[in-house]
Amino acid sequence: MRPLLLLGLAASLAACAPRPVTEAERLGLPALDMVRVEGGAFRMGDVFEGTHEDATPVHAVTLPAFLLGRYEVTYDEYDAFARAAGRSLPPDDGHGRGRRAVAYVSWDDAVAFCAVYGFRLPTEAEWEYAAREGGRALRYAGTNDPDSLRHYGRVEAEVERHSFPVGLYRPNALGLHDMTGNVMEWVGDYYPFYPEPGAEPVLQDTALAMRVHRGGSFAQKASLAPTFHRAGTMRDLASDDLGFRCAAGA
């Protein structure tokens, strides 16, 4: 048989091969709604005033395409995982569960949830690139106007200080909801300073290493919600305004 025919046969067999069943499918967990984000290059960090010490120096980043959850993970989704895995259910403080963004999950809890689907947490660069609609200079996910932020995310809540059901606010141009506000979101990175031009960030994978969360929350001021704003905390923190969404390679 000619080599080209062999290659064609191999490609056909590969295309017909069944997709491996994920652990989530085996356990009967609900599917997650994922958005494909096309890759590209952008300048990461405080591209506005350049004064945010934790988000400077601004540096160039190039990303391949990736998938990101359209919504923050909900109580319904996390509860199904926890029950199947024999884990404790996170508290809801009497505010109900359902489609509310899940809270009281540690970084390791979030990693374990995503892994069951064959996913992971987004990197900081992926999260910021997606929140900024492919790296545009957007202060908040969906808008640059502080007066319009109320349409895109829930921050500075004075009443009903708890997470809300996902998707109540407008998505950004990529179709991603609640990238600003509702709950802060764990990302997969440690918490290094940004590298100086030409240098690589120093990452320390230790049990005590801090992890990063992004996006601000209902309990925080809008000044803590810009797309470039980053905060770090211990990986075992579980609070009422800290959740996550999953990511994967495209």
Could you describe the 3D structure shown?
- 38% of the residues are buried.
- The protein has helices at 3-16, 23-26, 75-85, 107-116, 124-131, and strands spanning 34-37, 40-44, 59-63, 66-69, 184-190, 210-214, 230-234, 242-243, 247-249.
- It has a four-stranded mixed sheet. Strands 1-4-9 form a three-stranded antiparallel sheet, with helices on one face. It has a two-stranded antiparallel sheet with strand order 2-3.
- The protein is globular and about 45 Å long.
- It is 19% helix and 16% strand.
- It has a single domain (22-249), classed as Alpha-Beta Complex (paralog of FGE (formylglycine-generating enzyme)), CATH 3.90.1580.10.
- The protein has five helices and nine strands; from the N terminus they run ααββββαααβββββ.
- By secondary structure, the chain is of the alpha+beta class.
Determine the structural class based on helices, strands and strand pairing: alpha+beta
Q: Can you tell me the CATH class?
A: Alpha Beta
- Rg over C-alpha atoms, rounded to the nearest angstrom: 19 Å
Largest sheet: 4 strands, mixed
Residue-averaged pLDDT, rounded? 90
In CATH terms, what is the fold-level topology?
A: paralog of FGE (formylglycine-generating enzyme)
